[in-house]
Design goal:
Layout lengths: L13 H11 L10 H29 L2 H27 L12 E4 L1 H4 L9 E7 L5 H16 L4 E7 H10 L1 H8 L2 E5 L1 H16 L3 H19 L17 H15 L4 H6 L5 H25 L8 H10 L10 H28 L10 H11 L8 E2 L6 E4 L2 E4 L4 H4 L3 H12 L2 E2 L1 H9 L6 H5 L1 H11 L5 H11 L1 H5 L1 H4 L15 H17 L7 H7 L5 H10 L10 H16 L3 H12 L3 H8 L5 H11 L2 H16 L8 H19 L7 H15 L5 H8 L4 H6 L2 H17 L4 E7 L4 E9 L4 H11 L4 E8 L4 E9 L5 H19 L27 E5 L7 E8 L4 H11 L3 E10 L2 E9 L9 H15 L21
Length: 945
């Protein structure tokens, strides 16, 4: 990279531009007020701006200097403003003998005042006057502003005299911050120097605590709006945690408090070490490069690094693909490491500030500093030694050390310090945090193998207090990645998909936090079963170790579950686990996705599904561990990913599998189970006649009685009974299920292969998202389909009305009164963020997963209308659907259909299987082959034994 003191040569020739503008006035005797002249002047300026910014973009591509690019763009803007000012002064509003009041200083403030601009940045200007506004000053300001607006710039501006600037700075922190970074562009320089001198004397002096408190509070509020984690996978590079605004805030505080004008001065006065200043500069340069590329790429002031631009930015910055990691993932890992650097620099500066202030016992981290600056100095308390931990002291509930050599003397103290913080709920003194970071090289293989170090780490990991808090601190200081190098490989690693909301390391730490919540009983509403089961575990330690390691092998060419099991077999003995414990952890990691996958994409009423899963799990204790692990894993993915419906599916799978692992599965045969289900239903239908009850029990095949819950059996019975009494062949029921987060639609209709397609089309056209479907057929030729759609409205009454609108559309369509609109998403028309992803479509046929059905698993890029297209294609293939299971993982959808041919047989013919794959693969791409002449055939269900 070239020097930041770039001469900006070749960007714009202001003198030549002035000469061209002056030449345009010759036809009007040197006057530039003619509208034709103004238009010509505007044209010249537009050309100059366009050409100069193109050169700046090309230079960015060549040298990669983000800060240089921002400085070049600022220089271009300066020159344009100077040229416009001079043209207005000498050719539009020239005065021969200006009075003392007819002076003006054009000043850049805010980000522009720092001499940096992004391509889409606002231009913040302050027009400084000596006294009150004059007609001449008003005309000059107006001409400059209108010309800048016509050039397409967004300009923030104010016109004030010096007294007004000082007065407003005292009461408005935004104005004070803007003037703090004021920079003279053009005009009367004495005015500007006077403003700076008075601002320093009358506003800044003696008010540093007030300013720091305000800036930190402002920062915390901004983080709250943007998302409190710096590891969100679509970060805001300007306003987000670890972004440019955080660096700006750091420098505002340093400039205000230490009265410096550059980062190098902070090194001279000892606030930053030279290496830390280099880190500051490196972070700033990288963030500016990303921001400038983002603005150039989108053509607008876009600050969010969304999925649809991440890959292109990665290519622009020169990242390449490595085994196990895409180019975009390597770029985003670098981004998150830089965001982490910004957090480190924040703590370093705050530690330096604390050295100048007496500690407040209420203080907790940076927010504590903010309080101290608000309330002023408070009484200090003497440091107290920590019992049983020589060299450690606690001061105002903050852990510190008596000597900076404590880690050199015993490197295991780098683990002990976190165990003490966890055990006694201490906060870390900022100076201690800084010392830990500077001591990381002491963590070598000897420390990693040390039994005491591993005991201390396991104590933190399995703590009954708040392990997430301490693990995050270990990660922020770098200790976690040094002590467990395998974890270090996933620090700041993002996965380029819409499913995961956080980086891998943040997800792992959050999952530990979720696990601790479950154990404390703080999340019983979300999944009460996991809360109950965790209290019955024989060895809770296994759960926490598994949770910490379950995704630790992400980013490798090998499947991360299999690779993770290998990592566990290596690490667990080091952590102090015995052979049996190690094997259990390894098994859990290798199978940590199984329960989620089966629950969401398999027919849980199919006995083969349960027996196969039970065979894999083998023990009841493993089943309990796997359920809790699955719940915590999904909940830690991001807000809203875990919901009541997924919880219900997991509970159903657990309860169906449990008897197979406890010896209870043989207590009742199929015939006995069917008889019991019928008897329970009859007991609920006491208001029916004996004749009606007997007739109804013969209307269903055995499989229906085995897989349908008692409450749903009753709902179905009442629906069919009412339809019979009213002579109806089409009937509906809508049942909102608040706890599961779904609404259940039951449809009774004459059976035909296109019924599910019509239902899917109606749901698609109304914006409803189908999450599951159970398809049943009565012995007299009626379809009884149960469809579960995602809940959208908070109130049951509103949600019921929404469901009734959908069933009304289904009814009109089946009666021929209305047609389902064609899906808008055809091949190549995927919209929005989805365009950033490439998901290969895949269709798998399996005849071993069910005794009665062929299982079709269709995966691909999600889009509106996909389920509609798939069900239409399945209908044209003359396949009967027994059940459908719809799972969405961010941009990827996995739809599973249990199907037979029209005679109720599995699809065994190889040629027909290939046709099915081709048709459904085409349907994923939006290419649906419809056959209007296809026969409407009844579904025939094989009677399950």
């Amino acid at each position: 990279m070239t020097s930041t003191q770039d001469d900006h040569s070749g960007l714009i020739d202001a003198d030549a531009l002035r000469a061209r503008l002056t030449a345009l006035t010759e036809a009007t005797d040197g006057e530039g007020s003619d509208p034709k002249v103004r238009n010509a002047v505007l044209g010249e300026l537009k050309t100059a701006v366009r050409d100069a910014r193109k050169i700046a973009e090309d230079k960015l591509a060549d040298d990669g200097g983000g800060l240089l690019c921002a400085q070049r763009l600022s220089f271009i803007q300066d020159e344009i403003i100077r040229v416009i000012y001079d043209f207005a002064l000498y050719h539009i509003y020239r005065i021969k003998n200006p009075s003392a009041a007819e002076r003006m200083s054009v000043v850049a403030v805010g980000g522009y005042g720092r001499g940096t601009l992004a391509p889409g940045s606002d231009i913040d200007l302050l027009f400084v006057l000596p006294y009150k506004q004059t007609p001449w000053g008003e005309q000059i300001v107006e001409y400059i502003l209108y010309m800048l607006w016509d050039l397409g710039f967004k300009v923030g501006h104010a016109t004030r005299n010096i007294d007004e600037c000082i007065r407003l700075s005292k009461t408005d922190m935004t104005i004070r911050t803007a003037i703090l970074e004021a920079r003279h562009i053009w005009g009367d320089e004495d005015l500007f120097e006077n403003l700076v001198a008075r601002f320093q004397k009358e506003v800044v002096e003696g008010t540093s605590s007030e300013f720091i408190a305000a800036k930190l509070q402002e920062r915390d509020e901004r983080h709250r709006r943007q998302g409190t984690s710096r590891y969100l996978v679509e970060p805001n590079i300007k306003e987000g945690k670890g972004g440019l605004r955080d660096l700006n805030t750091l420098f505002w505080i340093a400039k205000y408090h230490y009265q410096v004008s550059s980062q190098s001065e902070l090194v001279k006065i000892g606030v930053l070490k030279r290496a830390e200043r280099t880190r500051f500069r490196r972070a700033e340069d990288f963030l500016w490069a990303v921001r400038c590329h983002l603005h150039f790429l989108t053509g607008r002031p876009e600050e969010r690094l969304s999925f649809d631009v991440q890959r292109e930015i990665a290519v622009r910055l020169g990242y390449t693909q490595h085994p196990g990691m895409k180019d975009v993932e390597r770029f985003m890992k670098h981004y998150f490491l830089i965001a982490k650097e910004v957090g480190d620099l924040t703590r370093i500066l705050c530690a330096a500030l604390e050295d100048e202030h007496v500690k407040d016992p209420r203080g907790r981290g940076i927010s504590g500093i903010m309080r101290r600056f608000r309330v002023g100095r408070s009484d200090n308390t003497a440091p107290q030694p920590v019992k049983g931990a020589p060299g450690f002291v606690v001061e105002n509930n903050r852990l510190s050390v008596t000597a900076d050599t404590i880690f050199e003397t015993d490197p295991v103290n780098l683990l002990r310090v976190f165990q003490l913080a966890d055990k006694y709920d201490y906060n870390m003194h900022p100076r201690l945090t800084r010392l830990i970071r500077h001591s990381l090289k002491l963590i070598n293989n000897d420390v990693r193998k040390d039994p005491e170090a591993n005991r201390l780490f396991l104590s933190v990991l399995t703590s009954r207090n708040h392990p997430e808090k301490i693990l995050r601190k270990m990660n922020e200081t770098g200790v976690l990645g040094r002590f467990v190098p395998e974890f270090g490989k996933v620090v700041a690693m993002m996965q380029f998909n819409m499913y995961h909301h956080y980086t891998v390391d943040e997800h792992l730490i959050r999952s530990i936090g979720v696990l601790a919540e479950i154990e404390r009983g703080d999340s019983g509403e979300d999944h009460p079963l996991s809360t109950d089961l965790i209290r019955t575990l024989q060895n809770r330690k296994l759960l926490y170790v598994t949770m910490f390691l379950h995704d630790i092998a992400k980013g490798r060419p090998e499947d991360h579950s299999i690779a993770g099991a290998k990592v566990a077999r290596k690490l667990c003995p080091r952590f102090g686990l015995n052979d049996a414990e190690t094997e259990t952890v390894a098994w859990l990691i290798e199978h940590h996705l199984d329960m989620s996958t089966i629950a969401q994409s398999r027919d849980l009423s199919d006995r083969r599904t349960i027996t196969d899963f039970a065979h894999t799990v083998q023990s009841h204790e493993r089943l309990k561990l796997l359920l809790i692990l699955t719940v915590a894993d999904i909940r830690a993915v991001g807000p809203g990913v875990f919901n009541g419906w997924k919880g219900q599916l997991l509970r159903t799978l657990y309860y169906a599998t449990e008897p197979h692992l406890t010896g209870g599965h043989s207590k009742m045969s199929h015939g006995q189970a069917i008889t019991q289900a019928k008897e329970e239903l009859v007991s609920r239908l006491g208001h029916w006649t004996d004749k009606d009850r007997k007739a109804y029990l013969n209307r269903h095949y055995p499989a229906y009685w085995l897989r349908t819950e008692p409450d749903r059996l009753e709902t179905h019975a009442e629906l069919l009974h009412k339809a019979d009494k009213n002579g109806e062949q089409l009937s509906f029921d809508v049942t909102p299920r608040a706890f599961e987060g779904v609404t259940e639609l039951t449809i009774l209709a004459q059976d035909h292969p296109r019924l599910l397609s019509v239902i899917a089309g109606a749901c698609y056209s109304t914006g409803a998202n189908i999450v599951d479907a159970q398809i049943d057929t009565t012995t007299d030729g009626f379809a009884l389909d149960t469809i579960f759609i995602g809940r959208e409205l908070p109130g049951d009454d509103d949600e019921r009305r929404r469901g009734e609108r959908i069933t009304a559309l289904i009814e009109r369509t089946l009666r021929g009164d209305e047609q389902i609109p064609e899906p808008v998403a055809k091949k190549g028309s995927v919209r929005g963020r989805m365009k950033a992803f490439k998901v290969a479509s895949e269709v798998l046929l399996n005849n071993t997963l069910s005794d009665d059905y062929t299982v079709l698993e269709v995966s691909g890029l999600d889009r509106p209308g996909l389920l509609y297209d798939l069900t239409r294609s399945i209908a044209t293939l003359n396949l009967n659907i027994g059940s459908a299971h719809i799972s969405t993982f961010g941009e990827k959808v996995v739809d599973v259909f249990y199907v037979t041919d029209l005679t109720g047989q599995k699809i065994a013919n190889i040629g027909r299987q290939e046709i099915i794959r081709e048709r459904l693969s085409a349907a994923v791409e939006g290419q649906v082959e419809l056959d209007p002449a296809a026969p409407v055939a009844r579904k025939v269900r094989r009677q399950a034994s």
